[in-house]
Amino acid sequence: MKRFVMFFATLVFGVTIAIFLARLMFPLPDISDRGQARALGVDPETPLGRMMIAGGAAHPGQSGVIPLYNGHDALVSRLALVDAAVQSIDMQYYIWHGDTSGMLLLDALDRAAKRGVRVRLLLDDNGIHGLDPILAALNARENFQIRLFNPSPLRRPKMLGYAFDFFRMNRRMHNKSIVVDGAVSIIGGRNIGDEYFQLGDDIFFVDLDVLATGAIVPETAAVFDAYWNSQSVFELERIVTGPGDPAGFAVRVAAVKDSTEAAQLQGAMQNSMERFASGGLTPEWAKVQLVADDPAKGQGIATRDQLMITRLGSILGRIEQKLDLVSAYFIPGQEGTRYFGDLARDGKTVRVLTNALNTTDVPMVHSGYTKYRRELLRAGATLYELKLRGEMTPEAGFQVNPLGFSGGSLHAKTFAVDDARIFIGSFNFDPRSAMLNCEMGFLIDSPTLAQGIGAIFDGPVATVSYRPELTPEDKMVWQEIRSDGTRVTYQEEPGATWFQQIMLVVMGLLPVEWML
């Protein structure tokens, strides 16, 4: 026993020394001389500014909102706003891929900067794999500034940075927002990548954004400023050295413009423009509140009152009748399970849609969810688990009904309360969103949008998901209603192999829920 204790102590000492030396070799740069920058106010001389001012005058104190259910609409809206920018573009994202949508948006931002628009791009360093040379090239351009959130000072291999700075790098900026000319913003659950915009033939993410103008936009811009100037954020040039690869960027852009995905997007743009022209995508004016984590959360020093989950609870107030919740990653924990269970036991309707095992992109999260599933069902909550429904068809990309599910893995984060208010944002009901990642979203007073989420649960959810239930003997089964009306009962986790079921149990035993 003594020998084991000595070995363990020696190991801990060795690891501590290694971490200390690694931090000396790869330190974070000093940012004490970094300049502070602020959002540019809305300019009535810009087209978007005139639109915002006119709408605000007709609807004082309110914001005009358009939900973006369809992935193509979501991408086209972003591209259109960037192309319409005259004064400024502020974008903040967790993941930015170098695929068709990612390169098209970077190209649009580059063109905006060249015509004199101030572009500020704030990216989480965890989600920009392989883009260092391209981002460095863009950052060197006039009017184009890029900063990174909680970056790894070690670029190759970047993930090795976790070994000597885990507790900082484990905190990520999960926010997703864009503000153009201080007049229009888009926030929601979508990152920048083809799977979020229904491009290509792979399984895509079912997600939701909201486009907004009016009173909420200056607040959204202020949140961007708070993060842009926070202590967790570093200028790209202090982290990524060298001039970048402008020629490589030009080649990549040319390649994606000739791709089948770009051709697919051309058809989507036509469909989106037709919906806008026909009035199918017109704003609803409503009271909107922005809820966001304080950037101090990225350093692990935020107080409870600075956390989004605390602010969200105080804003929501009492739930009178029902809660309809859509969360891609749902791990309520003991406190959340007690809260949702108390609502159900009190006679409130509690309905939750999350991913099934065969649709989630993070199986370990599913193992965390399964710990609380039985207790929620006993309390009277209704659970649905989105099932895999075959390959995506091109037609699915043009689905305009709320949260068109065909062929997708759930990624949306939204909930509706009492058919009166709806939240749309980046926040998942899991420990990572609550305590580690920085999040944001809009709480919208809109019976129309809230009832739309309720209609999803009343209608299509039953046929696109499995419904776990408890038998009188307290055994869990899953009910499936197929498209032809056939009902099927599963005695085990649907779509799971015996190996996956064993792994669920094993992963559920690991003490990692606080990170999920």
From TrEMBL:
It comes from the Bacteria. It is found in: Secreted. This is Phospholipase D. GO terms for cellular component: extracellular region. The chain crosses the membrane at residues 7-26. GO terms for molecular function: phosphatidyltransferase activity. Keywords: Membrane, Secreted, Transmembrane, Transmembrane helix. GO terms for biological process: cardiolipin biosynthetic process. SUPFAM superfamilies: Phospholipase D/nuclease. Residues 169-196, 406-433 form the PLD phosphodiesterase domain. It comes from Thalassovita litoralis. Could be a virulence factor. Pfam families: PLDc_2.
